[in-house]
Every structure is written in structure tokens, then in C-alpha cells.
Amino acid sequence: MERLQILAWVVLLVSPRLRLDFLSWHWIIYTNPFCRLDGLMAGALLAILVRKPGFAPGRLLKVAWIAFLVGAMLAITTAAYGVMWLTFSMAAVASAGFVYLGLFEANAWFRALLTNRFLMFTGTISYALYLLHKIPDDVFKRLHWKDAHPLAAFRAIVVISYLLAIASRSLVEKPFLNLKRFFEMESKSTGEAKVPSPEARNSEAS
Description:
The chain is an all-alpha fold.
């Protein structure tokens, strides 16, 4: 476990430099999987952290809030100035902080925000949104509507992306998910420590 943790930290810290080198060589970094490794490593380090013996979620909530808020602001700022090699790192920091908060922040308004119906529905179609949003975006770019009417084009792209994602969920994802009954296996206990939910921690504390 310690070796994996060291490896994850090395990859996470080296990734920004790798992206910077790729840019100097005029390589595309947005779609390059090697330029997304720090995000994967941030998730791996978070998984290692919450499984450590004696892990106390409450101790790192403030750190998670700082990582989320500062990382998000820096990601937006660096993206606005075209410093994309650093934007990816800041997005990884913000995402790790947000995932931690989603797991362990027990604040009522925050939990209500995360569990509102629209956000939860978006979560069910999020992968299709990720895959398909480029279709309307590229169409509007080619028609030069994004430059002529940026706000209207953005709204139309969002609506069309949601419609495409809903169609994909109904026509592609659900039929494939229904096939999983042919491959079901009995769940086996792995003996790994389970991550407690905020509600479970509150009930234990009371």
C-alpha cells in the first residue's frame, strides 16, 4: 500500500510538468490520457486515505473545503488565461475536495444541495453528457452561432446535450444494463473497511 501511495504522489506531482512539456512540443493535451493522470491519482490517494486505520473524517473537512473552493477558483482562473497545463491540476484538487465533502460533510444544506432531484437526475446521465455534449457544441461552432450569439448558443447546447443524454440512457445504456442479470455473481466479503456515511457518523455520535 505504501509503495502504491508513493507512486500515486509521484505521478500526481510530475503530471503538470508532463503537460507543460507536451505543450512545448505542440501536442494536444485535452484528449491525451497521459495528461489526466493526476486526476486519477488524486482519486487513488483519496481511496487509500479513507481506508487507513484510525481514519477520522472530521479532521480533514476544513482542508477539503479549502481544496474544493481554492482549487475551483484557480481552475477557472487558469483556464480563462489559457494556462491549461495547470488548470487540469487545479481541477483535480477541487474534484478530490468535492468528493471528500460529498462523502463526509454532514451539513444539512450541503446534503440537501447534493440530493436535489435535478442534480441526482443529471448524475444518472452524466456519462452520456460527457460523451455527447461535443456534438451540439461542434455543430454550433461550425455554424458560427457561438460567436454570434454566445448566450443563446450555450443554452441551446445544454438543452440538446441533455436530450441526447436522455435518449442515450433510454436506448443504449438501460438495455445493456438489463443484460447484467446474465452475469451476476454472489457478492463476497472482501474484509475491507467500509467508508461511513455522514448520517451513520451522526447516529453513532448521538
